[in-house]
Specification:
Blueprint: H1 23-31, H2 39-47, E1 54-55, E2 61-62, H3 65-81, H4 85-96, E3 105-110, E4 113-118, E5 126-127, H5 129-136, H6 140-148, E6 160-161, H7 163-175, H8 185-206, H9 211-240
Antiparallel strand pairs: 1-2, 3-4, 5-6
């Protein structure tokens, strides 16, 4: 049984009656705390060895309550501690072996002060092109087309951040309704403008010499990003005259 990491006692994944769950059920359980979680993200975490669900004879995934709890810890450490997946996997494996496993951190000197930082600093999971294709269940032609419209873009070293999996899954889902990538350029342009506005607000904090102030900039950017996403959703719902559950 996986023990709750330090600082995570206040977070609870919904209890189950002990039966194995489908990936759709797992998605609904996790969404209360992680509203942006997708089936593609769960599959990606499985491909990275963060969770190992059972398989039925026909190949369907079946998750235990312990699997769901582990997924919650993984997502929480990504969100709250910016840890890369390799470090998260090693951390949770050590906990399951019963070893003392505080969250990894390093001491660094910044402007004459000793500060405690997460391993590798604030970062996100990174995946290769082949991993992205597999996790999003798309082919090379689709990815190339989406890149041509700016919906997905590799990092300077040619890999992608894990959020690209979410974007790819959503673009594919919209395609089922006849919405093509070229139709989504307006959404991408709007997202870029919103990101520019947030960056403009936090830019002075990012340039500050004090490391705590720079850390505050990261938290403020996340808060503003969340608010812009909620506003965008509310405006779309208002324009369509619908209400999402």
């Amino acid at each position: 049984m996986l023990k709750t990491p330090s600082g995570g006692a206040g977070h609870g994944i919904a209890a189950t009656d002990g039966r194995l769950m489908s990936i759709g059920t797992v998605l609904n359980v996790l969404r209360d705390e992680f509203p942006d979680i997708t089936i593609s993200k769960i599959r990606f975490l499985e491909s990275e060895g963060l969770v190992e669900p059972q398989r039925t004879p026909s190949g369907y995934r079946k998750f235990s309550a312990q699997d769901v709890e582990r997924l919650g810890h993984v997502l929480r450490m990504q969100r709250d501690h910016y840890l890369p997946l390799k470090v998260i996997r090693e951390h949770l494996d050590a906990m399951e072996r019963g070893e003392a496993a505080p969250l990894p951190a390093v001491c660094r000197q910044r402007d004459g002060e000793t500060v405690l930082e997460p391993v590798e600093g604030p970062t996100v999971a990174r995946i290769g092109r082949a991993e992205l294709l597999a996790a999003a269940e798309i082919d090379e032609r689709e990815l190339a087309e989406w890149e041509s419209y700016g919906l997905i873009a590799p990092l300077p070293d040619g890999v992608y951040d894990a959020e690209a999996v979410t974007v790819a899954a959503l673009v594919a889902e919209l395609g089922r309704f006849g919405i093509e990538p070229r139709h989504l350029r307006a959404m991408k342009a709007a997202a870029d403008r919103e990101a520019g506005l947030v960056d403009q607000v936090v830019a002075p904090l990012k340039r500050h010499r004090n490391p705590q102030t720079r850390a505050h900039a990261e938290a403020r950017a996340k808060e503003l990003a969340g608010l812009t996403v909620k506003l965008h959703s509310a405006l779309v719902q208002t324009a369509l005259g619908v209400r999402l559950p």
